[in-house]
């Protein structure tokens, strides 16, 4: 029973997702189909990618508030380079990915070497990225580049007639890669060790500095990639894209059962956390009578329940250890 | 001389003075104040008037930060409080009834107190990290505000209500008096009673203060309650100033500005000490900065970039690691003992 307790949060998350999906299928006609399930990935691809990056940050005991602004900055930079400067997407996409990674590693370096709370540094990063969007332009830049419109409209048909978008596939690949990195590589173990106890990790001789900077680099890279996917989704660059998105991301990670104090949880949980948010939105849109702001309230409530639950679990574990 | 230099208000006031000097050089009538129809007009009055909600929220935030907490939900509380009072006023047939205004103001204040208590209970009794505990209300609160307003902007046409945010008393905007009252009460309670020391001691070490007989839980709850109250009053000021409530945008980014004001004012985010006056100066710096940027004619959106650099610089200066890194460059002739220790410790 003791050994199993670490799986309880993720089992609860998965069960909750299944219950919601099954309940939706009983309540609304047309809900129970593969397409509805696939649409969860299609519509939440960017959330999934960002949340995966955020999982690593939170597992390492930090937090990254700059992700939403980073997405906006990526859409803005890509849109202005492609639309106004006429650059090729083949150059622009790698460029923005590198930009995101550099931005993240810069924040990570400040957090580690100057020992400032991650909350404040990434808050400054958030202001900076959002502000840079407006320096580029305060208006929406629409993208009509052939490559972007093609990617946006491509539907990969699966057997059975349902389809999935390229963005969704990118998101699934990122998730799979992240699960591999988190659980089967040295870097992943370092992240867990760092989140468990930074002091012990250091005394054990783990490369704390490198791990910490890399974690934020990865998160920056993920949010830039999410920005690219978001650009496919919106086909425009705008400084107000993804406002408040960092909170959705943190909510997804928490609902997925990753402990906010760091060191405990699974990337797979985040995956289901994103799906739960997607299902809530789908349920509300299927219902039709509920207004969309109920989404926020329900997500807030779920956050509350999960945090409370984690709290009780971690307390019980502390008692058991004694 | 050294005591002046070492005073915690020295650097914030220097920054404020530098900003004002810049404004004065840029537009010489910056300091001019004119009297028209019994009201004082001028840039300085505007800064105080428009800065009033931010100052209020930041005062509440200061006490929360002093207990090593943080309250992210203030922006949402601002929105909820404005929405509730505007909704109840807009439903009435006679919007100028004094009892109605008082009742709706009381309702807003009461609700924001309850929301503050909710945050405090989550932090102290349940023991959730403050960032996360208040994140719940930040996410859900915006939804609640939108639910109250029905996703619309509620407008009211009540002169008595708009007096709170845009009326004037003794030639000065009424909002300034509201802020002054709250500041005075907070300063008296924390500096003339033992409460301030309790708050600081809880911020240093909640367990130790509990063992020395301080009710850490009730201190934390009351601090969040006060923060909620301040945010609620700020919501009243904001919504009555524009005579409308907007569930979507009212109080957006307020939590960040308030935290910035607190940090600029010299209150450390690690808790354990706080400076109410410093916070007020910090909030005034932010408001003056915004005014300056508007005045120069730079797109106001660039405020964010400037703010980012201000946050970063303030935090870097506060960080002991950064200061010692700088200091070590000057002290090369001494044996760098600190470096030797820090290599093993950090």
From TrEMBL, chain A:
Superkingdom to which the source organism belongs: Bacteria
Membrane topology: Multi-pass membrane protein
Entry keywords, A to Z: Cell membrane, Membrane, Transmembrane, Transmembrane helix
Record-annotated membrane-spanning stretches: 7-34, 46-79, 91-114, 120-142, 163-184, 213-235, 247-273, 293-313
Alphabetical list of InterPro entries matching this protein: ABC_transp_permease
Localization: Cell membrane
Pfam families per the UniProt record, alphabetical: BPD_transp_2
Protein name according to UniProt: Sugar ABC transporter permease YjfF
Automatic annotation (TrEMBL), chain B:
Subcellular compartments: Cell membrane
Listed PANTHER family: ABC TRANSPORTER PERMEASE PROTEIN YPHD-RELATED-RELATED, GALACTOFURANOSE TRANSPORTER PERMEASE PROTEIN YTFT
Membrane topology recorded in Swiss-Prot or TrEMBL: Multi-pass membrane protein
Entry annotated with the keyword Transmembrane helix: yes
Segments passing through the bilayer: 9-27, 47-65, 72-90, 96-118, 130-149, 169-189, 219-238, 250-267, 274-296, 302-322
Top-level taxon: Bacteria
InterPro entries on file: ABC_transp_permease
Keyword annotations from UniProtKB, A to Z: Cell membrane, Membrane, Transmembrane, Transmembrane helix
Name of protein: ABC transporter permease
